[in-house]
Every structure is written in structure tokens, then in C-alpha cells.
Amino acid sequence: MPSALLDPLTDRGTAFTAEERDRLGLWGRLPDAVLTLDQQAARAYEQMRQEPTDLAKFLNLEQLHDRNEVLYYRLLHDHLAELLPIVYDPTVGEAIKRYSHEYRRPRGVFLSIERPQDLRRSFEALRLHRDEVDLVVVSDAEEILGIGDWGVQGVQISVGKLAVYTAAAGLHPGRCVPVVMDVGTDNENLLNDPLYLGVRHSRVRGKRYDAFIADYLETVSELYPNALLHFEDFGPGNARRILETYGDRYRMFNDDMQGTGAITLAAVVSALKITGQPFRDQRVVIFGAGTAGVGNADQLRDAMVRDGLDPEEATRRVWLVDRQGLLVEGMRDLRDYQAPYARPVSEVRDWADGKIDLLTTVRHVRPTMLIGTSTSPGAFDKAVVTAMAEHVDRPIIFPLSNPTEKIEAMPADLLAWTDGRVLTATGIPVDPVEYGGVRHVIGQANNALLYPGLGLGTIVAGAARLTAGMLLAAAEAVAGQVDARAPGAPLLPPVGNLRASSATVAVAVVRAAVADKVATRQPADLVQAVQDAMWQPVYGPLSEKNERNGKSGKSGKSGKNERNQKGAPPDEA
């Protein structure tokens, strides 16, 4: 098979012109007709729509991804709102569960803790220059979405995350690397599955795990010094510890902690424009004290500090409730990252005998804000919501858990239980709700509204590290795209126009990086610099270098985003 048809970054299939086919030696390899990219996209969309299930649609798109990346991203570009739930959450969760059984060809870098000596050469084998990588997404798959530990199969979360970065913010797919760290799994179903593709033992923890992480960070940052290192779906203890240990030394980002907290912050910014209250006056109860819950707590605490509170006072205005109830100092199973938010025993001694549940907490705290990251369906029941609404004119309630079967409450119920006063956003897409003669559009706290633009801005600025100011700028840029004060208006923008939204976020992030003195580049025309950095899914002109290599050219805009991507491995027999 000619190499021009093997590399998904350069293959054009039936879009190769007669002249290109002649120059690349594709005689007899393609049907006679020459189609445009528009025609190819229409056909690919029709083929995908014929698939009977969302998982089948996912697999159809992945096969297209493996053949022709430009066409794949053109399809996402044209139908992003429809296809985002297919290529990412929630369908990617089903694909992860089926990965070893549906496996067709490798995509990404697989790092096994059983072969640490392969770590460096696994990246060197990509044959990418130090200036040819903008983004590396890595997961150890311990806490995938809401489905838990899926071992090596979590590589799909890294692949899916990069697909969103490219579709939403125009990061060049050839300059992005998906990685999975296979450190074992505690999922017994996988360990007992004869087709499971990962190492067959329980998760490695402790010093050996920490050394693997340290080696990864040192190696990747040395090989690709300009790349943003994105961490995804690590377990809550490891996620926070890695970020706190290395966040000031490397250009890194944890979406589960920082991204989730920042998109929640964006929704809060919109809500407070309606209530007219400052951050420093908020009382926040968060149900679910894992990575996402504590990440939300951190972002809201930092916002209160910026609004005038000292850090200790701001921390005291956040209450965390988990499976063991309200977190209280001295609890035996309290984790280190939860400890700053644990309440003094003296404060809550008279609240209850034993466990202090969510309802009791709400009654005593009288929160202005209730956030759910618990994956406990129905946890925000009528008793909890009405207890909160008794003391707050416009209660801010965000049931953020997903998928749908794990959400804490549905917006229709929240509106009914609060007489339409609630200000809400959810972690899942929800249809508009009619209540009191008003059509309420429900904003989705989808991290895709924020992290693609945050990443693009970080790359354009050449930021040495990610700062709290850059996260705040991203949140405020998202919130600034809606007028939440109109009756029934959403607190967050829709996902249908993510490319424009991501560009707006990126501009704000670059400005914040400059203000925080971490930018190594300061473009004279910032808006144009962001636009120029966004790769476009189009067939570009053939280059002489690609013709010599039997390649079909490069796509998108000119500049550093265009490089000759090495060929992908052929399909398995």
C-alpha cells in the first residue's frame, strides 16, 4: 500500500486529484471519481448516522479517525454539538469498557510500569522534534469519568480528550500525543478477562508509582519542552499530590481538579451577576469530596480570597460532605487533600449524634450554594432543596454528576421545589424546562467550554506554567459569553459554537499569562495570533517534502502547526 494512503494525517482518499494520484504513484489504487472534502464529509456523516447505537457510531468515527484525520475533524467541526457526546462523554465510557474486545489498531503511547526502561524510547520512537509537540494528555485510568478503574483501556480517554482539543480549539492533531500509564488495575473483571490488553496485576502504588510519574514528567518535559502536560482521570489522592508536587516546576494541568473547578466557577460568576452578591459572602456546601469536589472547593475558595477574604476565612466558608457525612477533623478515613476543609469538632458537636448527613449540614449552614459531584442519584431531594431555599432568595444549585443516572437532581424538580427561584447548571445536557410561563434553558457545566481554550492560550503565550490568574481569566471569559440576567437564560454558553468560544477563552488566557509574568511570547496582535494558531480541517497544498516521502501534504494554516507527521502503523490483519 502506498504510504500516501497509510498516514491518517495526510491521506485524502478519493479527494486526491488526478495529478496528485499520478505524482504519488496511486495508479489503480482509488476509484476514478474525485470528490471534494464537502462530498466526503456528507458521505461519512450519512454512514455514521446509519449506525444503530452510540457505541457503533463511536467505532465508525474511530475507524475514520484512523484513515483520514482531516475528514474526521471536518465531520466534528460541522456537527460538533451532535458528535461531542459520541466522541467523548458519555459514549467514550462505553468504548473504554469494550476496548480490549473492540481493539483494532493502536493509537497513542502505552507506558507499562513493568518496562520503565521503555519510557524514553517510547517517545523517541515517535520521531518528533522538541518543537513539534504542543500537548501531551496522559491518564493512568484509575478514576475514569463516573465508571472507575479501567486500566490500559483508559487510553481512549486521552485520545478522546485530544479530539476535543482539536475540534474545539484547533490544536493540530499531529502536534498532540495521547498517553496511557499502565500501572495495573484493581478491576477484577478486567484481570479475569482473557482478552484484557493491560498488565495483569493490581495497581502499583507508593515509591515505585511515584518514581514512574517523576520519570515521565522529566522525560516528556525534556523531549518536548514547549508542550502542555495534561493529566486526566487519575485517582483523587494521586491527582492532587502530583499537581501540588510538580505544578510549579512543569507546564501542567489537571482537568479533573482545575478544569472542573474553573467551569463551575464560570457558572458561579454568571449566577452572582443575578444575585448581586459578592464571592466573599458565599456559603458553599459541596456534596462529593473527591477530585472534582475538592477542585471546585479550591477554585471557589481562591475566588473568595481574591474578593478580600484571607485564605483561612475563605476555607471556612466551604463545607464538604462525602460518604461518611460532613468532613470533620479527626475522622479516621480523612484524606490529606480533604483535610483543609474538615470542620472543627467544637463547631459541629451539637449538630447530630454520629454522622452528619447532607440535610443536617444544609439546615445548619444555610448555604447560598449547593454543588453536587457525588454520583449519588437523587441526593438533592425535596427535603434538602426546600431546606436550602427557606433561607436564600435565589439558591444556586449545581448537580454536576454524570451520566444521567448519577445526577443529584433534575432541573425540573429544582425549579418546582424552589418556585422557580433556583439558579442551576448541570453536568449533563438537559432539555429546556417550562416553569411559571418561562422557558428555562439549562447550561451544561461541560469542561469542553473551558479547557480547549485554556490549552490554546497557554500554548500561544508559551506560558512557563499555568497560574490561578489564567484559570480565573478562562472562567470569566466563558461566563462573559452569556447574559444570564434575562428570564430563563442559561448560566453558561451552549457547546454548539466551541471554536469561537475557545478562541475567546484563549485570548483572555494569554492576557492573564502576560499579566502574571509567565508568558514567554507576547504577540503584537493577540486575536490574530490565536486565530493563526488554530488548525483548520482542510486539505492543504502538497509540499515538495511530502511528495518525496510519498506523503499527501499537510492541512490547515501555515506556520509551526504544519509539520510532516510520521506514518501511523497499518491496520491489523
Could you describe the 3D structure shown?
- By secondary structure, this protein is an alpha/beta fold.
- It is 42% helix and 9% strand.
- The protein is built from 24 helices and 14 strands.
- It has helices spanning 18-23, 37-49, 54-67, 69-78, 80-87, 91-97, 99-102, 119-124, 155-169, 188-191, 207-223, 236-246, 255-275, 291-306, 311-315, 345-348, 358-365, 382-389, 411-417, 451-461, 468-479, 498-515, 526-533, 544-548, and strands at residues 109-112, 135-139, 176-182, 228-231, 252-254, 284-287, 318-322, 325-326, 369-372, 396-399, 423-426, 433-435, 438-440, 443-444.
- The strands form three sheets. Strands 8-7-6-9-10-11-14 form a seven-stranded mixed β-sheet, with helices on both faces. A five-stranded parallel β-sheet has the order 1-3-2-4-5, with helices on both faces. The protein has a two-stranded antiparallel ribbon with strand order 12-13.
- Helix 4 (69-78) crosses helix 5 (80-87) and helix 21 runs antiparallel to helix 22.
- The chain is globular.
What's a concise summary of this model?
Helix content is 42%, strand content 9%. It is of the alpha/beta class and 573 residues long.
